[in-house]
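New to this. Explain the following:
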Amino acid sequence: MSARKPWLSGIFTEAVRANCFGYDVKKFVDFKSANDKSRTAQFSSVVEFGEVTLEKKTSELVTQPVLVKTQIRAVYPPPATSIDMFHNEVLFYTKVLPLLRRCDTCDVLSTSFPELVYGKAVGKPEEDIVVLKDLRQKGFQPCVDPESLDERHIELVLDRLGKFHALSFICRLQDPMGFEKVASQMRELDYADAVSAFGGFLTKEAFREGIFRGIEPLQNAPEYQGRLTDLRANCSRAYDLMNEYMYGSRDSGVIFHGDFRLDNMMFRYQSDGTPIEVVFFDFQTISIGSPAIDICRFMIFEAPTELKRARWETFLVVYYDALANQMRDYQNTIPSMEAVELDVRKKGIFAYYVYALAWPNLFSDKNGLGCISCPKLKGLNEQEVQETMKTYMQNIREWGGPKVTEMLAEAVRFMIDKNFIFEY
C-alpha cells in the first residue's frame, strides 16, 4: 500500500462524518485509484481519478467516481503562490458557489460547474485537497476537436459564461455585504511573477522579449507600421500593468475564472456530435475584476482565426444576451452592450500578455517538446554566465518554433484590426 492511500482513507472517512457523501452514508470502505495514466500533473497540482466505495445505513455498498486534486511541490508556481491558488479553489466551491446559487434563477451553476464532495485548504501542501464528483459519469469529456473549435462550442461557452458573470452583478444588488465578505477572502496573486515563472522568464529583459514576440514580425508590414506605437508603449509597461488589468476593476467587476481556456472545460455531446452542455473547472485564479479577462482569454486564443474575425461581434452579442437575460429582473442595472464591447477593447491586451508568456511552454509541452529549461548560473564564471544567458535569451525568442510566433503575431493583428485600445 502506498503512503498516499492511508492519507486518502483518512480524508474520505472525515468526509463521510461531515455527510459530504450524503446523510444516508454510514462509512467509508475503500478508495480504488484508476490506472497511473489518469493521475496527471497540472503544473500546480496533481489530479487523480478513482472510485470511493461507501456503505449506506441500509448496509448497501455503493461507489462514487471522484476526482482528487492535491498540491505538488514544483518549481512553478512558487510555494506561497501555490498555497494561495489552492485556497482560492477551495473558497470557490465552499463559499462562492453557495453565495451565487441563491441568485441563480437559470440554474447555470448546477449544470456548468462540478459538484464538490470535500475541500480543505489550511496552507499545508501535504494536507490541502479538493474532491469532486467525476464529471465523466455524466457524459462530459474534453473538447473533441480543440484545434478546430466551431461556433456551436464557442456560443455554448459564451452563453454559460455570460450567465455566470451576471450572477456577480445580481449578488452585489441582493446581498452586497455577503458578496464583499466572500470577495475579501480571495487571495490576489502576483500575476506577473506567477506567469513569468511558468513561462521560464527569469529576468525583465526575458519578460520583454516574450511580450514583444508577437509584435516584432509586424514591424515591416506596411498595413501595421504606423499602428504599433500605442501597443509598443503598453507592452513596455506590461510587467507593471498585468496586475492592474487583472485586479483593477474590483469595485464594479464580476467574479471571473482567470484561466478561462479549453483545457479547463469539458463538454457533453449529442449522438451527432453537437455540444449541448459545458462545465468549467480549475478555479485557482479566481478574483473580482473585468468580465473581459475571461472573454478575451477564451476568444482571442481559442477561437479559430477566420471564425473569430468573421463573427467577433456576433459572439460578443451571444455573451451579452446571456448576461442580460440572467439579469432581466434588474433592467436598470444591466451594463449596456456598448459598455461591454468597450471594456473588451480596453482590457483584451491582458489576454495577449498571458499567452505571449505562457503559450510557448504550453504549446511545447502539448507537442512533446518539454518546457523551457531555466539556466543554472551558480558556480559559473562571468564569461560562462554571459554565454549561458545568451543561449537562454535565444531560446526565449524561438521557444515553440515559428508556429507560436505566428499565433502571437495574429493575435496582435486581430487586436489592431478590431480597434483594441492600448492606452492605460
Summary: The chain has a mean pLDDT of 90.
